[in-house]
Amino acid sequence: MTGQAGSATSVALTATASCAAFRGQDELSSDDLKRAALAERVEWLAGIAAEVTRKLILEHFNDADIKRLGAGVGPDGRPLPAKGYAAMRRLGWTATSEVHCSDRVHRMGEEAAARLLRQADHRRQMVAGIIATWPKDPKRLTKQEWESLELVLPEGASKAEVRNRSRQVTAFVAAQGHLPQGLEELEDQPQVFPQVLLSACDRQAATLTRSTGSFVTLRVQLPKSSKPRSRQDWSWVSIPVRLPPTVPEAAELHTPTLRVRAGRVLVDLPFTVEAPVIPRAGHQVGLGLDWGINTFLVGALAKVVFDRGRRRVITDGIPLRFGASGAIAKWHNLRKEGEFLHRKISHLERLRGEWGPHPLDAKLALLRAHHQNLLARQRQLGHGIAWAAARWAVDQAICSGGTVIYVEDLATLEPALGRKVNARISASVRGQFQDALRHLGAKAGCAVVTVPARGTSSICPRCLRPLRHYTSPERLRSGHPWAHCSHCGLSTDRDHAAAQRICSRGLSSQPAVHQDPRTGHMAIRKSQDSQVARCRRRRPSLGPTTKPRTHPVPLRRRVLSPPAVVAVNGQRPEGGAPQARVTSAPGQDTTAQPSPTPPRHRPKWVPLGRGFHRNAHATPVVPRDDFGPKALGYA
Ligand SMILES: [Zn+2]
What we know:
It is a single chain. By secondary structure, the protein is of the alpha+beta class. The strands form four sheets. Strands 12, 13, 14, 15, 16, 17, 22, 23, 24, 25 and 26 form an eleven-stranded mixed sheet that branches. Strands 1, 2, 5, 9, 10 and 11 form a six-stranded antiparallel sheet that branches. The protein has a five-stranded antiparallel sheet with strand order 4-3-8-7-6. The longest helix is centred in the middle third of the chain and has 39 residues. The chain is globular. The N terminus is likely disordered.
């Protein structure tokens, strides 16, 4: 989670660190609490707060009350406080617990209920708008019907949301035979997960102090039993929490939220750091990223130069690749297995019907637990892929002096290649990647700007004429991975051509960058294109015995020559396994002894690191020589 707010010179970035607590000390009895004992006491507190939340949700989860809270105006006409529990109290919505607990515990329960109701307000507005303008044929909306729907939808509603909510209403109509009255009838009450929202408390229930090094000490009042009867059943417990290295020394820490998962106390600790304001325009060096067909991400570095009195975009022609095909294949296996389990559960639920206790119940419970486990693993893997890719992309940009990263706008991606290719990376992983990129970019002082995706891979970056796509450079048959321009002779990887186009599109449209005042996200909606010139970097030293080439290789030979990197099995280097670098073409004798001369270039494709990162292969992040004319400028 990332948020932005701040003054003109600096911006406050808020993020949440995921920590865990393994022990505590009861301050009254000086007893050491081991992991299980601490988890049990936190669970009791979370249970008491969740009981209050459940009572409030049961009473107020209806369209009228959700609307009242969402409108943000109290009964006296004054605006409601931002804190959820305070807003609930202003409206007179309170619930009491049956056990002995302080007012702060009530506040936690009220805060959780207010958050659930405020989240439901957006859904309520969506459903109310869709029901009010329900068309005759929900599968085909006329232009007028779309326009009337857009007028009643809440701010920030996306087309995907409209589609999903419309499907929900269609399913309700098919089952019940009439339109629902509102959200209350369409949805079940939201599930209440036990959690300890310490942000709703003051110093009389919880304190947080930074102790030596990377530790903080959290002091919190915890019950001694699941049903405390008096004040004696509560005591202060101090809990040491180790901060992850991503929390800098100067960060401002906020009171955390505690949860218990699998016998462990999880501490979600929000913190704020100051970061410089990133300008929207005026960038000279940028990195363009394309969602690859061959690879997960392909990047191209480009810069703006003034050459003979005119502004030009130049690139060095080196593709930067990030591939995680092993992890993505695993992700898809989990997705397929999850879909299969979902179908099986639905089938068994139909067989079971609405009867009382049933022999299928035990099996259903097992399958549901398995399904939830699969979904959690899939989410975790997607999160890992997205953050590893974002870290790599930001490192590549700042290592080469880039101050801006351009990515395709997810909303404008065209599903041109059918379902099979589109399913390669899910929209959720792409969205997570963009969020991660924005967060890491903001910390590193690197802007992240989305550009329209239209036509990025169908037009030649060099001469802006249509490109043709082939299976490979040596077999010019119609296909996807390779791009060739018959006008200027450009022959390159399709994704690399698209990355160059994205970067030049972004660098040329800098005056048109729009920043959302609410989210701080930067986007180019109307873009202009410019040609990208290729400017080679200085050649690396070839050693004392090799003579530098004095004449250019004819274009025709360069276009049709086999690629320099060929995998052992003859496929292009998009695979998940580390790619062997074989410099000979397919068909030649690869069993010959390797040449004694050292490799001239750095490896192009290496594992990112240990653990999960062994599954990801990427172009190494190394400082490279500058390229292009020295007279840089952007005015
Ligand atoms: Zn061309």
